[in-house]
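Service request form, structural biology core

Requester: graduate student, group of Dr. S.
Request type: structure prediction, single chain
Budget code: on file
Notes: please return the result as structure tokens.

Sequence provided:
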Amino acid sequence: MTDSFDALSLDKALLRALEHEGYTRPTEIQSLAIPHALAGKDVLAIAPTGTGKTAAFTLPTLQKLAKGQRGGIRALVLTPTRELALQVEEALSAYGRHMPLTSGVIMGGVNENPQIKMLKRGVDILVATPGRLLDLMQRNFVKLDKVEVLVLDEADRMLDMGFIHDVRKICNRVPQKRQTLFFSATMPAAVAELANTLCKDPARVDVDPTPIGRPQIEQKVMFVDQRKKQELLTHILKDEHDAMVLVFSRTKHRADRIVKSLQKARIRAGAIHSNKTQGARQRALADFAEGRTRVLVATDIAARGIDVDGITHVINFDLSDEPENHVHRIGRTARAGASGVAISFCDREELKKLAAIEKANDTALTHDDSHPFHNGADAQAYIAQVTAQPKKAKTGRGGWPKPRRRGRKTRRNAMR
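Core staff response, request fulfilled:
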């Protein structure tokens, strides 16, 4: 792993921008991916959220475009969510501050007219969510025939959200002669198939997907009845006065109910999910990042674009249906060498989900029974579930399994 950005052969303009941002040492994904991207190779990168993927593709993209001829959209970055699109565009503006390149965002949930005006003025790098981009393409507001670099960020989430057909249609309009940078947190079969169709002889980069094993994340599971989860959450938040907490809810409606209950308890909180307007989502995220609220409640889909420093606690109000998502959730804390706490609430109906999470990450979460809402029966049921051994087969002489007895062959069954 490289100790400094200087060793990655980045332009001085980019190094100045990184120094301005306070970045001195690249992350693992940046050290591994940037050299391949700068060499012009396609890159297939698998790394969890929060590992620095944005800089891993924006830095080499900026460097490549700065050396070429300007004119038309020369790089396209596809993201699954509006928050992530804004985050990528913000990174492009920050890292490219000393370069003569422009960037812009196209996304749904907001007025399209400013986006159309931006397209008419022209940009070098376009960051977009698939739905709005395809709509504007079909109305001839967007031309992709000059694209030199195609980036897919959080490809697995785009498939989860049903964007696969839109993504394929968009990619078919991009020149075949291009560089493709394909980034994903996980690699299920559908994502691997998409990568194979888009990338040509890519350099594959894999980063350890288990921040669960990092010592700076203190992991706990609290067994609690579903009806008591809200009281437990309020209890923890009142106990942790200075905590900056990200709470994960399984549904949008529950996220709103959690926020209302916290506000009644005079705890400053906001929610972010797909039912919120883009303006409301951006305000909730800004309030959280700037300390006006100290609790943000989010669903998995909306949370993919949350990149906020200083999160001290991640609380899984509901366990994720997908064990892999657990890693991405807790990876929101303990960033940049800081420590963090990840707490998972678990009720009787979630025991199987907890077992799946522990199995997928090859680790056991610490059981915390110090809270006043501890459900000992569920804790014991879980311990019995994970420690149960499969029954041994009955054996005969010499330890061999006893043969099954077969009924005597009668005239009746012989005629069947």
